[in-house]
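Progress note, sequence design subtask.
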């Protein structure tokens, strides 16, 4: 299942890129559905900066009727990202904290200059679910649900993946 999105920003591409790469934990207050981002490691190998982050989704996003049964680990994930300063791009991969083997989500983000004070954020990725590894779901049922599950998860995570651009826009607007 392809995941994609783009957004125009009214700030220079280099500044947008650096803010996304270096200030993501500062954006948590602006990001919908996110309670926290913790940078677990940062490795600088110019022109690359490699980050390994742990994200915590908001418990309030879980439907109230199932909230008591959903542990925080189920709505948290890791992301590995290689940010390239020369191309203003990022190769990323997301893995679940629980049930890591049941899905794969990876892609790239590019920030493209659109003049001096404008830029465009573009994200493209792919989500694949391994139906045989979905915890708690019988294999025969998981295989039948693969397509609908991928569409549901892609629809759920796409706004979170692209909302970073809106958060950067608001963050930079507030910074003046």
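Output:
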């Amino acid at each position: 299942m392809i995941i994609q999105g783009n957004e125009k920003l009214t700030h220079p591409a280099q500044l947008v890129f650096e803010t996304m790469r270096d200030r993501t934990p500062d954006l948590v207050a602006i990001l919908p559905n996110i309670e926290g981002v913790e940078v677990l490691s940062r490795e600088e190998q110019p022109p690359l900066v490699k980050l390994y982050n742990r994200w915590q989704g908001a418990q309030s996003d879980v439907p109230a009727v199932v909230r008591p049964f959903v542990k925080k680990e189920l709505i948290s994930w890791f992301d590995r990202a290689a940010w390239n300063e020369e191309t203003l791009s990022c190769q990323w991969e997301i893995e679940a904290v629980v049930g890591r083997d049941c899905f794969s989500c990876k892609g790239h983000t590019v920030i493209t200059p659109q003049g001096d004070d404008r830029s465009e954020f573009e994200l493209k990725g792919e989500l694949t679910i391994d139906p045989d590894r979905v915890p708690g779901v019988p294999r025969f049922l998981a295989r039948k649900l693969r397509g609908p599950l991928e569409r549901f998860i892609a629809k759920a995570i796409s706004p979170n993946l692209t909302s970073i651009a809106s958060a950067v826009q608001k963050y930079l607007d507030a910074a003046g």
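The beta strands are 2-9, 34-45, 48-57, 76-84, 89-96, 103-113, 119-129. Work on this subtask will continue into the next period as scheduled.
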